[in-house]
Design brief:
It contains seven helices and 14 strands. The protein is α/β, with parallel strands linked by helices and 211 residues long.
Length: 211
C-alpha cells in the first residue's frame, strides 16, 4: 500500500490517499476547505491514475469533513464514519462560524462503521479500531499487512487529541489509546490527523502522556 499525505484548510488537517496495485484508492478525512483545495486533491489523484472507491472519516469535527460534499459531487461517494459522530457533522456549520470559517452542511454518511469491522478497497483492507475520547465516535484504521494505522485526532506524534470539545473525555481517550493503539506492534507507522507520522514504539517510549 502506498500512502500519500496532503495538508488542507487553515486548520492544517492531513488528508490521506491510500493506493495499491489495483489502481483503486481510499481517502481518509477529506479536509479540503474550498474548491481550489479540492482541485489540488483531484489533480493529485488523476496524476497517480487512481480511482477513488472509498471515503472514510476518523471522526466528524469540521476540519475532517470540509470536503465531503465536494467528494460526493465529484465521485458519487459518501463517507463512512461511526454512528456517534452525527452530532458533530450536524453542528459543523455553527462551529465553523466560531472559528471565522464558512462551510455548507456536509452530506449524511453513506454508511456507519464500528469497532472490529473490515473496510476494503482494491486488494487492500483496513480494520476499524474504536478510539473514543477526542470525540465520542473517533475511529482509527489499521492495516496489519502494511504495518500502518491512521489515528485521526486520537494520537499524535508526542501528544494526544484535545478532550475539551463535545464528546471528549480525557480518561476514556487515554484508555482507548492504551488498549487499542499502543497494543499494536511497535514498528507500526502512525499517520495522525495533524502533523508528522510517528511509530507506536516511539509513542510508547517518548509520548509524555504515556511515559
Amino acid at each position: 500500500m502506498e500512502v500519500y499525505r496532503l495538508v488542507f484548510s487553515p486548520i492544517e488537517v492531513n488528508t490521506y490517499i491510500l493506493a495499491d496495485g489495483s489502481g483503486k484508492c481510499a481517502v481518509i478525512d477529506c479536509g479540503c476547505y474550498n474548491r481550489a483545495e479540492f482541485d489540488r486533491l483531484t489533480s493529485f489523484i488523476e496524476a497517480k491514475k487512481l480511482e477513488p472507491v472509498l471515503l472514510l472519516n476518523t471522526h466528524c469535527h469540521l476540519d475532517h469533513i470540509f470536503g465531503n460534499g465536494l467528494f460526493l459531487e465529484k465521485y458519487g461517494l459518501g463517507a463512512y464514519c461511526h454512528k456517534d459522530e452525527d452530532a458533530n457533522r450536524r453542528d459543523s456549520v455553527p462551529v465553523a462560524s466560531i472559528f471565522g470559517l464558512k462551510m455548507e452542511l456536509p452530506p449524511e454518511p453513506a454508511g456507519l462503521i464500528g469497532e472490529g469491522e473490515i473496510v476494503k478497497f482494491g486488494v487492500s483492507e483496513l480494520k476499524v479500531l474504536f478510539v473514543p475520547g477526542h470525540s465520542a465516535g473517533s475511529l482509527a484504521f489499521y492495516s496489519e499487512k502494511d504495518g500502518v494505522v491512521f489515528t485521526g485526532d486520537a494520537l499524535f506524534a508526542g501528544s494526544i487529541g484535545r478532550t475539551d470539545l463535545r464528546g471528549g473525555n480525557y480518561d476514556i481517550l487515554i484508555k482507548s489509546i492504551r488498549e487499542n493503539l499502543l497494543s499494536l506492534p511497535g514498528d507500526t507507522i502512525v499517520y495522525p490527523g495533524h502533523g508528522e507520522s510517528t511509530t507506536i514504539e516511539t509513542e510508547i517510549t517518548n509520548n509524555p502522556y504515556f511515559t
